[in-house]
Amino acid sequence: MELTRRDAVAALAAVGATGAAVLAGEQAVDRAGGGADGARGGETTDESAAGGDDRADTERVRATMRAVAAVVYPDELTGVDTFLQRYLDGRLDGGDHALALRQTVAELEELAEAWYGDSVAALPAADRDSFLREIGADTADEDPDGTTAERVRYYVVNDLLLALYASPTGGELVGLENPRGHPGGITSYARGPQ
Amino acid sequence: MSHERTARTMQADASDGTDRDRTPVSGADVCVVGAGPAGALVADRLANDHEVVVLEAGPRFDSASRIDRQERALRPAFDRPAVWDVGGDRDAHTNSGERFYPLNHARVKGVGGSTLHWQGMVMRLHEDDFASGTTRGVGPDWPIAYADLQPYYREAERELGVAGASDNPYAPPRADPHPMPAFEPSYSDSLFAEACASLGLDMHSVPNARNSEPYGDRSPCVGYGTCQPVCPSGAKYDATVHVERAEAAGATVLDRAPVERLDHEADRVTAAVYTTPDGETHRQTADAFVLAGGGVETPRLLLLSDSAAYPDGLANSSGHVGAFFTDHLFAGVGGVLEEPTRQHHVGFYTSGCDQFYDEADERFAPFKLEFFNYAGPTPVGMALTGDDWGDALLERLRTEYGGHVAVGGLVEQLPQEESRIRLHPERTDDRGNPVPDVHWRVGDRALRTIARANEIQRAILEELGAEIEWVAGPDATGPAYHHMGTTRMSADPTAGVVDADCRTHDLDNCWIASSSVFPTGGAMNPTLTIAALALRVADHVESTI
Fold first, then answer.
1. CB of A51 within 8 Å of any CB in chain B?
2. Are residues B374 and B319 located together in one domain of the fold?
3. Looking at the structure, do residues B169 and B296 belong to the same domain, yes or no?
4. pTM of the entire structure?
5. Which of A65, B180, B323, B338 is 20–30 Å from B263 (CA)?
6. CA torsion B115→B119→B120→B121, rounded to 10°?
């Protein structure tokens, strides 16, 4: 089953992020000749405001989220990169969530370097899975202000799962065309199984 | 703990304006305390011809924040109170009854009140509900009859926007159709219909305060499925509709302006004393006062306003302020079928059964049955709380989502004087005022009726062939978050706090618009009756000032 940009827009609608600000920012940076260090620009507002290296840059966040998605999403999905590109446009829009996501990814990457000697994205899939479990992200309760495991669960693992299973395609994976949080209309509830 | 930081952030965003003018309105005709549905309807009804000011304890929420609040509703990190920033010292309370009452799960403080998180079911009470003592042999009669409220029910349905049909043979008489057509029955309703037909049970549609088509400038339902606790589309009615209309007509609505006491003379309220975010205290004078703070904060305010003339609390010559606190009790049975039942596409239910409602007597309370469209866990909820991911998670979701069914129901609780809201003798809130102590009791008639409802619910699920997984029976019941009875209505000043017009017996210029005036609660969701009574109060205030 294929995830699309439409699914990403639907997932963003469920969490209140549209990505309009980041897209405008990216265009501005593109016109100015691109972002620093070859990264996609746009989300530089909060990066420049960060003033430190405790927040992952945009490309690192995107790469890490793609790598984690490869672990936590089911294998039968296609189109994940396209889906995440658009979804993260919204999630990295400079708000509080974006800042906390960057911080959490930076911590995750620091641990990956310390324990496995490489970035999350560079690890073999089996090691990525093990790494996330060793952190405790599989058993932790999500908490945006909690321990590293709880924040990884909230900002990384569960955010990816929320994006997937609140989208129409994610819902269809389990037989629910209009998942909770998606404004999919008021006809499907009255229909029988197809 | 995790949600508190984010909640504070959003609350600050929502209130956006600690520096706005919250000084009293001079020359006010009417002061309304509380901007929930009752206060909003009263203000809207009177604002065209009178100077109206509304004082609301909670903030004015930014409508743009609703999607963020929906994420909270989807996320396990946030509990129900966190969705609308309920909690903390402002909302501190205690429980001293034999049953725990989760008060902060049961209310929202802010412009719109608890309609911001309600489910939006809007049934009329039955004729016998107004005469429980006479027809059922227990409880007091109301001093008004269904016929007195019937025209106001009609108006209330139009004000809120109700989608319904006239297919319920057990519903009380009505002269007009609902303003919008009912929502279609769900797929799972069709499964229940076969089982109910076999058992001789009548199913029918239920009225929703949710747009089945465009209504005024409000959208039809688009199926977010998170009605309770937040509707991002505005298709579900909430009281911001009437607050905004009242403001457009000239009313002044002050948020974050909790009323701490009512200054008074022997027979009239003279001012509502409120505080503002800057720490200042103000006095709002008016010719008439309408208390619309709900079934807990309204009696609390009267008790906080004690004086030499009213040593047991303002308007409390009867001794009944805070007494007879009741709610509706939940009864339910749930199970699983070995076939898809199509749950969680929408967040409301579409069919019910009122067949047993008017069989109520001394031993058994009225009750109604509800056929859920949201039984069992949601895929998102399971995904965000499991220990698995990837293919294993998907396999679990496919196994555990899809076949659930449930029949719920509400049961009347008979009022008992010792079930009451009191002031806690020691604990205080963020402003140093005694917090409400909820002393909630449930009597045997309600518990017996829950068991009776369970028998029927179980029979339906067994007829369906479901494997029963849970029963919310007498030992596992809980409240439906409908606070009632704490300033009861009675024609007799010794037996009630307000009269048949909802004006306090003690004070000539003070009305109460709330479910707190219900002498008995029936078993129907109370908000349509709250709205009808509020419109009636507005008429009476209008004729008086």
1. no
2. no
3. no
4. 0.93
5. B323
6. -140
